[in-house]
Amino acid sequence: MFGFRKNGERVSPPDLIIQDELHLISGPLGSMVGHYETLITTLCINPNTGKGPKVIASTATISRAKEQAHALYNCGIENIFQFPPQCIDAGESFFAYVENDSTKKPGRVYVGIHASGLPSHATAQVRVISALLQSVKMVSVKDEKERDAYWTIVNYFNSLRELGHAATLVSADIPEYMRAMWNRKNIAKENRRFINKLIELTSRADSSEIPKYLQELELKYLGSNDYKPVDICLATNMISVGLDISRLGIMTVIGQPKTTSEYIQATSRVGRSSEGPGLVFVIYNTSKPRDRSLYEQFYTYHSKIYSYVEPTTVTPFATPVRERALHALIVGLVRYLGNEDNLKSPSPVPSDDLQKMISEIILERVKNIDSTELDNTKNLIYKRFQEWINYSPVVYGNPMGQNMNMPLMYPSSLVGNQDLQKKAWATPTSMRNVDVECEARVIDFYPDEEDKN
């Protein structure tokens, strides 16, 4: 892939990299990606020309894109070109223009709900969702198929904890409130709405189940009982990207998301078809000052929402990132830039010349991206090589952490082996969760005052 053949011969490495969803590579994840990108960029440098690949990235809802791209790819801010460029008239570019006639292609309508008179935020959720579910059956339509866009309600939550609480509401409180609604409004049996199918699109769902859930969301409401489409979809920020189902037209957002970019990405999952213009109901939490403030500025906020998109932050050589991933970067460079012995085994240790070469590669990148971290990075590189020399490992290790005899690295998820943790390097094996986890140990012995003395 990188131009290395099995016999050691070099051929041309990739000269073009296409990066999708650049706006997601920010924060802790972006910092880790930018750190490992040092290795990718080094391997992609053409040995004949000394030049790296061209990077084309697609992005949305992003601010300070040039700074982010430079922190990730070390390409230099002056070498970054954003396209399509703005034309003379606002709202137009070479590829697209803004359709001002809403009757041709209607967009989304946002509705803010701040139910300060209700006992709790949960009560507001129950009443709003119940009303939305039932109202689809009450609207007069010429063709039953017209109900399809608003049949499946997507409920968006900011955390799994909030979603778990809502799952209880869907199974108990909402059906109970709907029955009370039927009695209060004398709704005929044939017009009553029932919750027959509920799915959950979150990181808790098994990866093998996700395609099945997406297929179920594609099922349309045709007015018959042959099959029943999804009634409610509970989701977190997992749906912010990759969920392109045109039939979805209605969403409830439970509490304002943490960032404006997440809010835009999430709510753009509905109303993607002109057949079903989007309806977004934001149920604000009355106990949160931020939600109350956004409700008070609701029209102003949504009229220029893209101007509120937060700048992305990427710090690939900050202290937490270095501590977690610098050793993995060093090992990767040693195995690719060293000889065949370095590729197969961590023993013998890298030569002084190889250590110097790797240090220069990393420090040159640090100097270009964040020069304030240059000295600290230099010291940690030296420390890691000394630990390697003093430890004399037998194998590099494996991602599963099994059958390892004196490994240089072990999976950071592996716990319990104290001797291994003192000598080998804990290494992340997945980018799905880059945050550090806390390890708890049960203490069986509690010394009394005499033991302390």
TrEMBL record:
It comes from Lihuaxuella thermophila. This is Helicase conserved C-terminal domain-containing protein. One of its GO terms (molecular function) is helicase activity. PROSITE patterns: HELICASE_CTER. It holds the Pfam family Helicase_C. The keyword Glycosyltransferase does not apply. The keyword ATP-binding applies. Residues 152-317 form the Helicase C-terminal domain. Keywords: ATP-binding, Helicase, Hydrolase, Nucleotide-binding. SUPFAM superfamilies: P-loop containing nucleoside triphosphate hydrolases.
